[in-house]
Amino acid sequence: MQVDIEMGSAAGGSPATLDLEELLATRLLVQGNSGSGKSHLLRRLLEQSAPWVQQCVIDPEGDFVTLADRFGHVVVDASRSETELAGIAARVRKHRVSAVLNLEGLEANVQMRAAAAFLNGLFEADRAVWYPMLVVVDEAQMFAPTAGGEVAEEARRISLSAMTNLMCRGRKRGLAGVIATQRLAKLAKNVAAEASNFLMGRTFLDIDMARAADLLGMDRRQAEKFRDLARGTFVALGPALARRPLTITIGTVETQARSTSPVLMPLPEAPADASDLIFAPGAAEAAPPQPQRVAAPVRPTQDILGELARARPAGVNAIEPSCAEAIDPGEREAALDGVIAEMVDDPDIAFRPDAMLYQDFLVRCRIARVPGSPPAMQTFRRRMAVARAGVDAETAEGDTWQTVLSLSTRLPEEMQSVFLTLARSALAGLACPGDATLARIYGTHSQRRARRLLTHLEEHGVIVLRTDLTGRRIAALPDIGCETAPGDPNAHDVLPEGHDAAAE
């Protein structure tokens, strides 16, 4: 079904329309300096398309929360944990509710992590709820920067990954990215390059004009026109907008942002006693407490030097340890294993990215009061891979399992959990796990990706796959001299108690 929404008027007064169905397949990039009318453009797009498609807005300044009153958007306050935000995003997709993620008032690092968690929750939703959704990200240069700047590298990496997934892989999941930025030069190129539709507003810096002209197929001389564009006027190009660069003026909107542009106002007449108004508190104001300065008694220098020279009394330690009892390594390892086992038994975490799992792990460690510093991310991934394999204590203590662990270290981290699961099935004589089970262990809903992973494991030489006469799959591990029992690759994924029958 083709739906054309009116964005405004083109030269000559003819209506400028946008093909909404084409936009869902080709994505949109909006660029313009501060004050060029980007937020007005996004609001016009959201208002006109609200009756036709589900929407999600990543709102760093809280400008779009007013859509809730007129169009029923649910405002999600981002001051929650990343796990909560991912769960809310999954339910937003499931129930097809339009939402605004309000990031107002949060620090840049927290904004990036919260937006990444929400976008990942939309991206990792179950295939059954991959309905079309317009995902609008305002100030996209904050969430997909070309360089780290003043934010933490880990936050930048997580946010950039989420934005890349939205723009590069979101289409097949029904997610249509609409990103707006003040500076094209500050926006990661692999994110901007995925958009096929462009609305370029007023721009003054040469580097931004050059990138805008390059995206629109214009030469440098034509790029000069971006300096002359009026507020609310944009140059449109793309399959959903126009086949040739077209100047359009954005139409009016029904809702308004909570924050408005500053407007000149006449100053009030200065009273004669202006100094008294400024420096003296008013009647309704509490007078600030005045600090009382007490002069310290002056001590003779000889007395101070004598105290420093005297020996410390017996029985007094120079430094008192903060923890009186030494940490028992065995108890600490058991506590860490307990936390990871609790995470593995939680079916809701199977498809979350490692960064979110690690944050959840740190929180659980604090709740469980695990002593000592938490393990690093790489160590956590390793322990999770072993735990997902579900090997019993007796097998884990054997020499054969130690050989399996040594073999797994030669593989990329994302392959280790699947390899360990195959090894554990082979050692226990269980059937070869099905594609759905391997996909869950790998952290994806795609069984095709699980099959590709098995091919990669074969290329690394750690497994050999074959099928019996009935078409059931067998995985042999030549380095430990054992193989799994035949298993149906199309078996349904079942998470049994204790992970003792994960094959079928």
Structure report:
The protein is of the alpha/beta class and 504 residues long. It folds into two domains: 4-250, 3-Layer(aba) Sandwich (Rossmann fold), CATH 3.40.50.300; 335-499, no CATH class. The chain is built from 19 helices and 14 strands. The chain has helices at residues 20-26, 38-49, 67-71, 82-95, 108-123, 153-169, 189-192, 206-216, 220-223, 274-279, 301-309, 329-344, 354-367, 377-389, 393-396, 399-408, 413-428, 435-442, 447-459; strands at residues 4-10, 15-19, 28-31, 54-59, 74-77, 99-102, 133-137, 175-181, 197-200, 233-238, 242-250, 464-467, 473-477, 482-483. The strands form two sheets. An eleven-stranded mixed sheet has the order 2-1-11-10-9-3-8-7-4-6-5. It has a three-stranded antiparallel sheet with strand order 12-13-14, with helices on one face. Strand 10 (233-238) and strand 11 (242-250) form a beta hairpin. Helix 5 (108-123) runs parallel beside helix 6 and helix 12 (329-344) packs across helix 14 (377-389). The longest helix has 17 residues, at 153-169. The protein starts with a strand and ends in a 21-residue tail after the last strand.
Q: Which CATH architecture of the largest domain? A: 3-Layer(aba) Sandwich
**CATH-assigned homologous superfamily of the largest domain:** P-loop containing nucleotide triphosphate hydrolases
The rounded distance between the terminal residues' Cα atoms is: 42 Å
Radius of gyration: 30 Å
Number of strands: 14
CATH topology of the largest domain: Rossmann fold
Describe the global form: globular
Pfam families: DUF87
Biased composition (Basic and acidic residues): 490-504
Region (Disordered): 485-504
Keywords: ATP-binding, Nucleotide-binding
